[in-house]
Amino acid sequence: MGQVYGIGESWITSDCYQCVCMEPFGVGCCDQGAKPVDYPDWCELIRKPGSCTSVAVMRANHKLPCLWGRDSLRPAAVPAPKSTYYI
């Protein structure tokens, strides 16, 4: 037999759903894990071990984070702009 919860009690399941025992409806659950959205094709989502957080990583190497967006990725031949200061 599984765990018994009282009316109004909540819990997080092993697959990262937060559930609550409701009357008269029974149990309601929602996905609890935070997930990035709108990431490029060369990335994929993986869940951090032991947590409900997902991160975007490079498909070719899951040890590397997926960086995208403005100023995040630059072609190797184009150096980053340098700031000029006048005193």
Automatic annotation (TrEMBL):
Protein name: Uncharacterized protein
One Pfam family, short name: PSP94
GO (cellular component) term, any one: extracellular space
Subcellular location: Secreted
Family listed: Belongs to the beta-microseminoprotein family.
Keyword Disulfide bond (UniProt): yes
Domain of life (superkingdom): Eukaryota
Organism: Mastacembelus armatus
Gene3D superfamilies: Beta-microseminoprotein (PSP94) domain
Alphabetic keyword roster: Disulfide bond, Secreted
Chief place where the protein resides: secreted
